[in-house]
Task: structure prediction
Amino acid sequence: MQLAAAHLWLRDNDLGTVVQATRLGGGDICATWYIETDLQQRFCLKVLETAPADMFHSEAASLEAIHNTGTLPAPVVFEAQAQFLAMEYIAAGTPAGDYWQQLGRGLGLMHRQPAPHFGFGSDNYCGTTPQPNPRCDCGFDFFAEQRLLYQARLAQRRGLLSSGDCQGIEQLAARLPELVPEQPPSLVHGDLWSGNIHINSAGAPVLIDPAAHWGWAETDIAMTRLFGGFAEDFYRAYLAVNPLAPGWEQRLPLYNLYHLLNHLNLFGRSYYGQVRSVLAAFQ
Result:
């Protein structure tokens, strides 16, 4: 039943009949499948029957934006519909000896490419939480309104934050210009933890599951530290290509408040303590 829409797409586009469907690992929200047809067509399908109608279309736009930079690879998208995303299948491998250097250098080069403004061509999702991306010329306003305060207000409506908690986040958002240096907009992955980086058969990194937008480059680096951090070779290679302003490591928890609030909204109160810890650290 979960693959019914994909079966129809394959049939209607003369791509064959499914002869193998294997559930792949990973994914807290969506199911991922390897599909092979009798015409030797192979795909990776990301499926969620309850997905918002535009979720996979917006993810396709994120993947295309990353792919078009020519820096780090991302899967080619063949079809996006309400319930599934069909992409090229990229066989998995083990990390090459210079895997972390490839990832750091590639991300640094991606972040160095000019972006027109903060925001993106369309709104998208981080997980299944809407992620607004209106055009904005000020990074402080964008991160305050469209990241921190959007998530905080959503959490308050759901009973996950008190009015006092929201007031604390509003006060922190107002202080962004004194806590964060001026930064130009960059194309960022938007959800860059280790589970959203695939390793191909050559041992090279491939970016998957993005929530891409034009934002602060440091926010991507922050997300790499949220669940344990990447190898030091990654950070050395990144900084050699795209140096960050002094004090960047101290700013990372501030950026990760966005993702902690999103996890609070997605998964519940178990993330509340981490939200409070970040607020206390920046009082």
Notes: Residues 18 and 37 are 4 Å apart (CA to CA). DSSP finds ten helices and eleven strands in the chain. Residues 248-267 form the longest helix (20 residues). The two ends are 50 Å apart (CA to CA).
